[in-house]
């Protein structure tokens, strides 16, 4: 490859990479970003700013969280990540140029940035960590540019605790690069003393400062952000890769410039491709992206979209089942289409809130209660979701709590949350619009969503345990016989639990329809009850069983008997019937 | 004529450009200003932090005059918040101890200045304890995550941490208690991760496993014996159940409870059959100031959780001879639930032994979940008990404790919004009459609008608790735990 071509490639490849970054986060991973924005409530107040100083990485966290607000906008996340990555790349490039890697700086600088993108694919690695990376590189650049060694050493020692306060444990980058610089690029006879001093300071800073931050020693040494619950190697690969590049260069070059040869460029390309492919494979979670997309569409009440996506994705996990079932219920097709989708027993209807769950699932758990009208249960889940969010706050849940408390006429609590949301950039209008409902019954009555919700909330109290879904559904069905979602959920709960006697009892009590024909799944279940002898056809005389279903159950039964219950002979023709589920569905863990 | 017109013009000019209201100008309201927190006609100690507040009107500017015995504060503010200068405030209050402050509030809006009816703040001569220890956690009623135990200086706004879940993730910390407000004695429980009971006494910090073979669970609600040699604990098995409707978001049901007393010198848990009967629930122990009587709450056994609303606790007592660890042979019922039709919980006796403050609710023994829960006082001299109307609201009032001199009580209340618990103080006079309470002051009057944690278990301490959170962390995480033994009472 000619020098000219190498130079051209050195410009084109980064440009292509940044375009790819934008496209990736805009088109393929945007719902992770939408969700990330929900996990904070960024307020434009002095007190909120000061609250950041109670933890390391205060500056990068504040800037990062400020930027994360823009994830709320379609494309906002993709744009901001691309800009931050570009800034990071430019700074790293500058660092590499100072380390006499000018000719390959453009490409080599991509490697740490790529690791940063890969790390960003995990919600627990927020953009604030890239800001920490930027701050550390800036400090390093300043350090490298100080010619006077005494001044440089003093600034190095002062920088470390400062950098820890600003950028958390990414301050190791500065220390290592300073050590490399002193070791290989200076001829100070006392450099080993200062290198030793740097290493001592870097070890002491976290454990000394942790007293002010009330964090464990392990957290002190590895602090990246409040979002980072568990550390992974990938979280440090951005800075490790940069250290390796500079260390390798220092060791290999020691006094002589490396000439860029084609083989070096090809090697760098290979590394980049390897990093991109394996890193993204390891750290992206497209299953979660799909679930988050379902969740996003559900939050906008776009149930037809949720259903279309469910059909397209054909996922087999309880979270997708949760949203699919809600969508089917909202579209009035749950008892028709229940068996056409993956059903992990009744766990596809509700998400439990207990110690075995995590904040993601707890965040989702309140939605179904809200739509069912069990507003207190929705509140309970929402409060717990806030508690378990990484920073004990969640803007989406807070908005839910505003609505819940308005419906419940607990206006003082709703006002508290509205006061908080009005201090945010993108949610203040939403909050201001809700303010008119406070203490104003007339406005509440005029509002469709409030009046509609109040019409289906429980009228009589009932006590239940936190995970007593059936009791909740029975209560809703008894108190609001026109709450078709509650009735369908109750009946489907019984079916998914394979509790035919309970299903029949509840069906006879609550199911009301003007039509004589039954929804498919209910029909199939009732035919089981009849076929087993528990019920007679006259018990359901107001309905008409289709001749097709009667024929099919007869066929099913004869094949079942002939094949001694071997489901493989039934899967193809009857796999999406309730009969097949009843006989063969077994619970496994996701 | 010209001169008087000139005077008026000058006043108007001064009003406009200097922003000082002319107190003689019309625009006087017959009403008190609508302020938050409500400090109108409250009684405060002379060493309390500045009572900053905001006026709820739409106002462009404020002018206030706080007049004491000899000193006064006059200050103008743009906006609606009053932030009082700390030094001047403390001087004013110290000088006015036993006297009354007069607060005049002038509000400027589009129509000009308006003078509200002045209100008073009574400054008690009796001091309040220096610090308050409390827990912060988010309302969840079932699970918890972030929480901490903090101590707040009551003469300013400084808060220091005693323990925080950041140091011990996955650990619930609760039931902190001091012996007669003495910061040199502390007991608190840790649950889940690093579970155990932390005791700080005689300068020693130790971790105890309280559960003996005779106990069905770990120790829960504590109360120190005044000698410092015993701690009474209840042992409880608690379940939460949730309401489908209404403001009572949850109900905690005690499925079983007994009382044990921990002998600190012998490391033994002792009890009496009268405190650990199968058919009864005994909980919330409280020793008399002389240590000879143990007060507690007791209820008959019911089918739970179905009959949860029929669980009504009475206030009882039993004698306790701490010299030989013996209990009385019978219990006395001071206030029977059959008589009240209600349930009593959290009895707390005044330092002079004259009064017991308790919470009364419709049922159960976790009044923080009951909106109707109110504070009551039992006068032990004449056995009369009464609702403390001055401190109660339409929302929960519960978890109360006394200051070391018995002239102040602190309690938690959900009165601001019905969900978040906050701390209130009230003055108690010699006759046990309690005056209008005031909210724990904050530097920013908007603090409570944004704070997403509840305050609970407020306890006065006479001085700052000198334990470092890292010391507690070290002890909590150490494998060395003292196992309490079963002892026998005589």
Short description:
The complex is a heterodimer of chains A (590) and B (490). Chain A is mainly alpha-helical. Chain A has helices spanning 3-28, 30-38, 46-51, 58-68, 76-98, 102-108, 110-120, 127-144, 149-167, 171-185, 191-213, 217-222, 233-253, 262-283, 286-299, 303-313, 318-330, 334-337, 359-372, 375-388, 395-407, 411-421, 428-435, 441-446, 448-454, 469-479, 484-496, 500-510, 520-531, 547-562, 571-574, 578-584; one strand at 463-464.
Shape of chain B: globular
The greatest interface between two protein chains, and residues involved on each side, is: A-B, 44 and 40 residues
Give the strand tally of chain B. 36
Number of strands of chain A: 1
Beta-strand residue percentage of chain B: 35-45%
Oligomer: heterodimer
Task: Please state the structural category of chain B.
Answer: mainly beta
How far is the first residue's CA from the last residue's CA of chain B?
94 Å
How would you portray this structure in words?
The complex is a heterodimer of chains A (590) and B (490). Chain A is mainly alpha-helical and 590 residues long. Chain A is 69% helix and 0% strand. Chain A contains 32 helices and one strand. The longest helix of chain A is centred in the N-terminal third of the chain and has 26 residues, at 3-28. Chain A is elongated, with a radius of gyration of 30 Å. The model of chain A has no long low-confidence stretch (mean pLDDT 91). Chain B has 490 residues and is mainly β. Chain B is globular, with a radius of gyration of 25 Å. In chain B, the strands form eight sheets. In chain B, strands 2, 4, 5, 7, 8 and 9 form a six-stranded mixed beta sheet that branches. In chain B, strands 13-14-15-16-35 form a five-stranded mixed beta sheet, with helices on one face. Chain B has a five-stranded mixed beta sheet with strand order 17-18-19-20-36, with no helix packed on it. The N and C termini of chain B lie far apart (94 Å). Chain B folds into two domains: 21-124, Immunoglobulin-like (Sandwich), CATH 2.60.40.1220; 131-483, Neuraminidase. Helices cover 9% and strands 45% of the residues of chain B. Classes of the chains: A mainly alpha (590), B mainly beta (490). At the A-B interface, helix 20, helix 22 and strand 1 of A face strand 18 of B.
